[in-house]
Each structure stands twice: as structure tokens, then as C-alpha cells.
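It would be a great kindness if you could assist me with a short task in structural biology. The matter concerns a single protein, recorded as an amino acid sequence and a row of C-alpha cells. Could you please explain, in whatever detail you think fit, how the C-alpha cells follow from the sequence? Thank you for your consideration; the sequence and its C-alpha cells are set out here:
___
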Amino acid sequence: MRVIRKIALAAAAIWAIAGPPAAAQSGYEPQKVVYHINESGGEDGSGYKGALNNMRNHINAVGKTNLELRVVMHGNGLELVAKATDNQQLQGLIAGLKNDGVRFQVCNNTLTSRDIDPDADLFDVWPEDIVPSGVAELAKLQTEGFVYLKP
């Protein structure tokens, strides 16, 4: 009984010094989330800023170590990374999210049907970011436990 009490007191002391784990601090358990982007963000791409800010707020609330976040883009949603080629504000938002572990995934069907060259036409898209089908990727991620969000 004394051993258990000593362990409990030691754990309480560590908790008091170090604080609770990130999930306990935020009140959120670890999450897996996919944001679905398939609409235009307007001529200058400013319509995407709200979605990108939602992602930033999501990370801030849950903690980047407690969040596996993906962004799947297809159709007109590819404008997000297309408009970012000439828009430093979008570049900064995307780069900051990527720095926090967000994965941006691009639909190959859209690339092919619209004759888009990811190297020349899109901001910071690499071969490993390209998925065969955006909608199939959304379904796959949901079967893997990702929660679907449409900002």
C-alpha cells in the first residue's frame, strides 16, 4: 500500500512540475482528420485563407503532436496550390502547415484531365503528394479512421 501511495505522490509531483500531456492540456484526444478542398478560392485564391486558418486553429487547439491532418484537393481545389505559385501569403500559410506535419495531397485524375504540370504549375507539390484519385483517397482515409471535414 505504501509503495502505491509513493508512486501516486511521485506521479503527482511530476505532473505538477511538467504539466499534463498535450492531449490533457487541450482537452482533446489524438485526432486523424482530412480536409476536403474541391472548390475555387476565387480569382486571387483569397477564398482558401479561411480553410487554411481553420487548419491552423485546429492544430493550435489539439496540438500538432496529437493531430494527423491531411488535405485532399481535386477538381477546382487544385487552385489552392496553383494560386500559391504567385501568392506569397498562400505560400506562407501552406509552408507553415506543412512544417507542422500537414500533408497536402493532389488528385492525379485532375492533373491529367486538366493537363496540369505539378512541377511548373503548382506550389510545393512533390511526387509523393500525388494520389491516383482525390475522391478515392478521401474514402480510403475515412476507412482508416480519418474524420472528414469540408471547410
